[in-house]
């Protein structure tokens, strides 16, 4: 059964965001035994940020 | 024997499991999913239901609940762990038993009586079951179609990890690989099965074959603690 999940990630850069999403994909969104997944950034996604200074 | 039955939001067979345990003389109590205290349970049961709604994948979210840390530790210590139906799905998602439960081959929710062969009677879950006994229990699930890649199925069979199979006259209700209805982890102290032993706990329900599992577990717990099991008449 296929599904598409769109989510926003709060991260300092693309690489860090991808790390978070990959972890979510392997541990939660997909069961690697029976499902595969692909991660793609949505157009304009990088423009969205919380801007919080840590 | 102390039996802790985990209650997730959406569990709906927890009371049946609590009750069935009392029929074999066990002390049973619920364990809320936000708790990490199993209160000294000898046996932990993950009951049937729809934990967290099963919206993403059956069992996928429940494995992250706080209680599952304690359940993992319990299993790692060799404590008895039984997952029934949704509980089996949670165990599989958590990696505590091998495999995954796909949608039924019929693509429909299947609820009916099935017959099970007992592949081993030398386990904590089946030791009170006479060899050759067929068990009659109900199933009620939409995702019970057991899956493992062929090579892993061969490995599972080689270590005698298949505990129950669907058999005649009803046969395989969901398309499960090799008619598998229940499996053991490598250690042999964690079992997941799709049929409901707790719903086959009294003759008035249509079968009391499920009590054989609970009796087996009481005997096992007694053997491991050196206490005599409480003998309860059928």
Summarize the structure.
Chain A has 1 helix and no strands. By secondary structure, chain A is mainly α.
Molecular structure report:
The complex is a heterodimer of chains A (54) and B (234). With 54 residues, chain A is an all-alpha fold. Helices cover 30% and strands 0% of the residues of chain A. Chain A is built from one helix and no strands. The longest helix of chain A has 16 residues, at 14-29. Chain A is globular and about 30 Å long. Chain B is α/β, with parallel strands linked by helices and 234 residues long. Chain B is 22% helix and 25% strand. Chain B contains five helices and eleven strands, in the order βαββαβαββββαβββα. Chain B has helices spanning 14-23, 67-76, 86-93, 150-158, 211-225, and strands at 2-7, 27-32, 43-46, 80-84, 100-102, 110-118, 134-141, 145-147, 162-167, 180-184, 190-193. In chain B, strand 1, helix 1 and strand 2 (27-32) form a beta-alpha-beta unit. The longest helix of chain B has 15 residues, at 211-225. Chain B is globular. The chains are: A mainly alpha (54), B alpha/beta (234).
Give the secondary structure arrangement, pairings included:
The complex is a heterodimer of chains A (54) and B (234).
Chain A (H helix, E strand, L loop, with lengths): L13 H16 L25
Chain B lengths: L1 E6 L6 H10 L3 E6 L10 E4 L20 H10 L3 E5 L1 H8 L6 E3 L7 E9 L15 E8 L3 E3 L2 H9 L3 E6 L12 E5 L5 E4 L17 H15 L9
Parallel strand pairs in B: 1-2, 1-3, 3-4, 4-11
Antiparallel strand pairs in B: 5-8, 6-7, 6-9, 9-10, 10-11
Helix percent band of chain A? 25-40%
Main β-sheet description of chain A:
none
**N-to-C CA distance of chain B:** 18 Å
Radius of gyration of chain B: 16 Å
The quaternary organization reads as heterodimer
Most extensive chain-chain interface = A-B, 6 and 12 residues
Shape of chain A: globular
Low-pLDDT runs of chain A: 49-54
Please report which band the strand proportion of chain A falls in: under 5%, 5-15%, 15-25%, 25-35%, 35-45% or over 45%: under 5%
Order of helices and strands of chain B: EHEEHEHEEEEHEEEH
Number of strands of chain B: 11
The helix-and-strand class of chain A reads mainly alpha
SSE sequence of chain A, one letter per element:
H
Gross geometry of chain B: globular
Question: DSSP strand (E) fraction of chain B?
Answer: 25-35%
Rg from alpha-carbon coordinates of chain A: 13 Å
